[in-house]
Design a protein that fits this description.
This protein is α/β, with parallel strands linked by helices. The chain contains 7 helices and 10 strands. Helix 1 packs across helix 2. The structure holds fructose -6-phosphate.
Length: about 240
């Protein structure tokens, strides 16, 4: 596990966008998993600019979703699908047939999990996984206490995830469960970048990097991954020396 600290969110986002592009340049049939959320928004803006001007071939790149809110229709602007459409798929020339998302309209979510696991087994492992981190230490919807042995699964969301998650939605919404890649997928990815910015992430970044390695803080498990990189801005890194 490595740590890289950037002065600003802008520099952090330039770096991460470059890492995604380099992965595709080096391996045009790479599999990517890219998180939703506020943290990587600027990264995706920069990635779309780079991909317009750049020389990468996206036509064979595979995309496996990280997670989705259960019970939220995909057309809701707060769904992960809406986010990915707006910030990635509408801007970067991925092929529709190479994209695999969780379909939460399905009556059988276990089957959705099995389909995702099958997609990753067939085309993976994931070459580059970009994940954010919740203030609880969750990665994807791998909530505190989750087993590290799970692949895709449906999970009850923690109260922090339900309340913080309101920020993505135009009006108040009941959030109760998520469907997510498991820690097993995350730990099997060749490279995992955990991106974090801002003072509000400083406490959980310190806990993740300096605290006990435990599934009660899922992000701590990434310290055992040789291909994990915590990419932070200086605000998220504030407490690391204290
Ligand atoms: C999003 C996801 C979540 C977020 C995390 C941080 O796909 O899986 O784990 O990455 O909650 O969210 P932001 O970036 O909004 O602070």
């Amino acid at each position: 596990m490595k740590i890289q600290i950037f002065q600003t969110h802008d520099e952090l986002s330039d770096f991460v966008a470059g890492e995604i592009l380099d992965t595709v340049r080096q391996k045009p049939e790479a599999m990517l998993t890219l998180a939703t959320g506020d943290t990587p928004l600027l990264t995706y803006k920069k990635l779309s600019q780079l991909s317009i001007n750049g020389d990468a071939d996206w036509s064979r790149v595979k995309f496996a979703a990280l997670d989705e809110w259960v019970g939220v229709p995909p057309e809701n602007p707060g769904s992960c699908k809406s986010f990915l459409n707006e910030n990635i798929f509408n801007r970067i020339p991925l092929q529709q047939q190479n994209i695999h998302l969780f379909d939460v309209r399905s009556a059988d979510l276990e089957k959705e999990c099995a389909k995702m696991d099958h997609f990753i087994r067939n085309h993976g492992p994931v070459d580059l996984m970009l994940v954010g981190i919740g203030v609880s230490g969750h990665i994807g919807f791998n909530e505190p206490g989750v087993s590290a042995d799970l692949y895709s699964h449906v999970i009850d969301l923690e109260s922090t995830t339900k309340s913080v998650g309101q920020k993505y939605f135009p009006s108040d919404i009941v959030l109760s469960q998520g469907i997510t890649l498991g820690l097993k997928h995350i730990l099997q990815a060749k490279k995992v970048i955990v991106i974090a910015n801002g003072h509000h992430k400083a406490g959980i970044i310190k806990a993740s990097l300096k605290g006990e390695i435990t599934n009660n803080v899922p992000a701590t498990l990434l310290r055992r991954h040789p291909g994990a990189l915590f990419a932070l801005d200086s605000e998220a890194a504030t407490l690391l020396d204290s």
